[in-house]
Amino acid sequence: MDPSALNSPDLQRFLNQEKEKAMVNEMVAKLTSVCWDKCITGTPGNKFSSSESACLSNCAQRFMDLTMIIMKRIQSMQ
Amino acid sequence: MDSFSTGSSGTGPPQFSTDEFMDQMKVQLAQAYAQEFLETVREKCFEKCITKPGSSLSGSESSCVPRCVDRYIEATGIVGRALLTSRSNS
């Protein structure tokens, strides 16, 4: 492989986009896994109850809230 | 990285095509994401649907699994949308 091909701006843009997509995908996957465990307690039905879907949505948002709180806490300690 | 070089019957080094590389990467990434999703859904639905493994799947276990897959896909959508909302608010 010609190493100078790595400098292609198209390739760099592509790699950055895919890296971003992979990070988003990982976050969604992890959040879904955590929130599924917390919110879907019984046997899955033909649809979510309104409390189950509210729980999933709330769970994701509260998880993200935690990130900010934890970051600020750690920053305040330095 | 031979899989990324175009076959060339002539002399000289294999030609490296950025477009081909990107196309191959997209295919491999899509396959990797699909594989990971399958493994996650399998684990979650086994846990929810198969409480006492018997010598074969019972009727209720068999009907639970497709429902569970549908719900997990739906949950992924709900969580993904909630994530978008919180990202735009931060």
Automatic annotation (TrEMBL), chain A:
Keywords: Chaperone, Disulfide bond, Membrane, Mitochondrion, Mitochondrion inner membrane, Protein transport, Translocation, Transport
Domain of life per record: Eukaryota
Record function comment: Mitochondrial intermembrane chaperone that participates in the import and insertion of some multi-pass transmembrane proteins into the mitochondrial inner membrane. Also required for the transfer of beta-barrel precursors from the TOM complex to the sorting and assembly machinery (SAM complex) of the outer membrane. Acts as a chaperone-like protein that protects the hydrophobic precursors from aggregation and guide them through the mitochondrial intermembrane space.
Membrane-topology descriptor: Peripheral membrane protein
Subcellular location: Mitochondrion inner membrane
Record family assignment: Belongs to the small Tim family.
A cellular component term, taken from the record's GO annotations: mitochondrial inner membrane
Free-text domain note: The twin CX3C motif contains 4 conserved Cys residues that form 2 disulfide bonds in the mitochondrial intermembrane space.
Location (main, coarse): mitochondrion
Domain Tim10-like: 14-76
Transmembrane segments: none
Family annotation (InterPro entries): Tim10-like, Tim10-like_dom_sf
Name used for this protein in its record: Mitochondrial import inner membrane translocase subunit
Record note on quaternary structure: Heterohexamer.
GO aspect biological process, one term: protein transport
Pfam families recorded: zf-Tim10_DDP
Automatic annotation (TrEMBL), chain B:
Start-end of Low complexity biased regions: 1-18
GO (cellular component) term, any one: mitochondrial inner membrane
Keyword annotations of the record: Chaperone, Disulfide bond, Membrane, Metal-binding, Mitochondrion, Mitochondrion inner membrane, Protein transport, Translocation, Transport, Zinc
Gene Ontology MF annotations: metal ion binding
Tim10-like domain boundaries: 24-83
Topology within the bilayer: Peripheral membrane protein
GO terms under biological process: protein insertion into mitochondrial inner membrane; protein transport
Family (UniProt): Belongs to the small Tim family.
Subunit note: Heterohexamer; composed of 3 copies of TIM8 and 3 copies of TIM13, named soluble 70 kDa complex. Associates with the TIM22 complex, whose core is composed of TIM22.
Designated name of the protein: Mitochondrial import inner membrane translocase subunit
